Amino acid sequence: MNKSSSLLFALLTSTTLVLGQNQSTNVIRMGLVADIQYTDQATAGSRHYRESLQKLEEMVNVMNSYELSFIVDLGDRIDRDFASFKPVDAILNRLNAPVIFVPGNHDFLVKNRLKKVVRRKTKSNRGYQSLKQGEWRFIYLNGLDNSLVANPWYLPKHWIARKELKKQQAEKQVNAYDWNGGFSIRQEKWLINQLASATEDQQDIMLFCHQPLSPGNAHSLWNYQNILNLLNDYPYQVFWINGHDHKGGYEKSGKVHLLTLHGMVEGENPSFAVLTIDDEEITLKGFGDQVSIQLMRNEKIN
């Protein structure tokens, strides 16, 4: 990190320390990071692979100055090679709040026998789960459930994914790449059940996945349109938060808020965010190259 960006980051850090001391019991505050993509390799283009460890050190210092309920790692913790997890995990283990891992495509660029070990890092054998907190339901999804990269060639799921990719390529879908993926039929049914249960509980929902749902985006889930349709029919507020598209961004598709985090591996600055939910607004405090966003809470639809 250069001297001017170090000074800027120090100023941001001192601001967050004050904010972290005033958390109300009605506030949910979480940390967010995406595309750390560490490997012990030299910088290539805008991707500073080796420097991701120092960026993580900076992030841990900032996030530990907050009272966070949890932290979500939105995937691509490593760039390749299972051994890359060890130094990254050692730094993340110093965070005061628990880290929830949402797997990315680069996390599965490991030997076939280790792919299932990567999935277990999510604390769920399926790679997806949900948690309730107050009037919110947080849903953590595995966007590589139906993919080539996460499923070894000798498993039936690999060939199901290959068939799906060929279909999408024949249809000239913009996101028809082997480094993308989607939900299995089983996971999509599970999500439908989660939405039904959350509707009964009158909960707003926040979904976390490695891939975006943005129409026309080459990084989006293979079955993004099905999921968008489901979420636009949901009667309460919906947020989808992802990584994968390193430039980041925010948009709405129908009623669904779509937030893509800026990739930490990109550039010289450590990019990450702290998201705060209270009764009136949802505020994303960005660090490094991550922009800040402030949104008003919508009233529930009765």
Percentage of helical residues?
25-40%
- CATH fold node name: Purple Acid Phosphatase, chain A, domain 2
Give the SSE string: HEHEHEHEEHHEHEEEEEE
Low-pLDDT runs of 5+ residues are: 1-24
Characterize the structure shown.
The chain is α/β, with parallel strands linked by helices. The chain has a single domain (3-296), classed as Metallo-dependent phosphatases (Purple Acid Phosphatase, chain A, domain 2, 4-Layer Sandwich), CATH 3.60.21. Helices cover 27% and strands 20% of the residues. The protein contains 7 helices and 12 strands. The chain has helices at 3-19, 52-63, 85-92, 115-120, 156-170, 185-200, 224-232; strands at residues 28-33, 70-73, 99-101, 129-133, 136-140, 204-209, 238-242, 249-253, 256-260, 272-277, 281-287, 293-296. The protein has a 6-stranded mixed β-sheet, with no helix packed on it. A hairpin with a 2-residue loop joins strand 4 and strand 5 (136-140). Helix 2 (52-63) packs parallel to helix 3. The radius of gyration is 19 Å and the shape is globular.
Task: Identify the notable features of this structure and list them briefly.
Purple Acid Phosphatase, chain A, domain 2; disordered N terminus; 302 residues; six-stranded mixed beta sheet; 12 strands
Task: Lay out the secondary structure.
Elements: H1 3-19, E1 28-33, H2 52-63, E2 70-73, H3 85-92, E3 99-101, H4 115-120, E4 129-133, E5 136-140, H5 156-170, H6 185-200, E6 204-209, H7 224-232, E7 238-242, E8 249-253, E9 256-260, E10 272-277, E11 281-287, E12 293-296
Parallel strand pairs: 1-2, 2-3, 5-6, 6-7, 7-9
Antiparallel strand pairs: 1-10, 4-5, 8-9, 10-11, 11-12
Helix pairs in contact: 2-3
